[in-house]
């Protein structure tokens, strides 16, 4: 028989679907693609401007702004204000919402000071709240994750975690493990821990390990506990299958 | 052979795909579904609040607003202001953007008067600009299409046209044809015209036809021209196929 999709001949043992199911699957695929187009169009409508070009560093300048954010932490002189809208910040972050709705210093003065952040990271953070997009590298992903956790911008936090998970390897797994623990990033924590578990033989020889034992020994204990727990579980699974 | 999808037996003449193509199609479907989930999450993040409940009529009250829109046209006393943000209006509508960026009466006074619109339609229009959602019935779809055309909110116009096309039938096709012509709604125009073409035998007997001949005879001419053109095309296609 000839496959209607790849047009190759196939035999009974390689049988896939009947024609009816194939046609249904094609229709489903078309419907899903239409739904994707509609959602993309919605995103285009709702974001305030198109995401910035990868090569240019120019963020759009919003108009009718009513608040500025100031980065402090660059360690290099005058902070440059990042203009924004209270309404946008409040709708993306419950922390900003509380800050701005109650008559706190920030809402009255029209300036929100953000500590321990670079100007670039702050601009990227604000831009994200208008476009749901950010241009990530490993440093930016860390900086944005910290901000996302601090201001409870869940969508951004998830975005950064996904990126950082994609960049995980044995060499950076401990650093990521410590970082994710510090900033309550559960997905990244689980992924780093998992990678460490697969490389326990190399663990105690690494520089990062020695530093972590000094800096946060309880975190190291957590690794060993997880490892032991995994061994116990694997052993009991083996028992169950030999008995069965 | 058994279909891996519906588990039914099928014969050679009902063959669909081979197993490899079936598995590839399943993976593609999974990828598309993941993409849909990510896009839905992005929409959730970017809209200002969740769409209103179908049964309740309560729109969210935005905070930190800097402009109000006033409906005039209800014909029943004091206009109730609809609060909004210049930044949101300007990002969704080039007409609002021009109005607000230049020092026109509206941007200076902080009030935008909208004529010939009901309060309900205006609230729904503003709400759309924050959520990309609207609760449509046939009246609301017309009202919102008019506003969308006037203020060049393309996404909303498309949304209304789609809805109105879904409600097209012979009885309302002429009214829709005239309406779409008046408000430059090409998709709706083409769809109404197409339906009229399929019902030319009933055309001259309908009340709407007689009214339209009185009100806008050139529009009626357009219908006949399209009809004639269609007949000529169909005739020449027939010629081509008989010759071939």
From TrEMBL, chains A, B:
Pfam families: BTB (PF00651). Gene3D superfamilies: 1.25.40.420, Potassium Channel Kv1.1, Chain A. It comes from the Eukaryota. Residues 65-138 form the BTB domain. InterPro entries: BTB/POZ_dom, SKP1/BTB/POZ_sf. Transmembrane segments: none annotated. Pathway: Protein modification; protein ubiquitination. PANTHER family: SPECKLE-TYPE POZ PROTEIN (PTHR24413). This is BTB domain-containing protein. It comes from Daucus carota subsp. sativus.
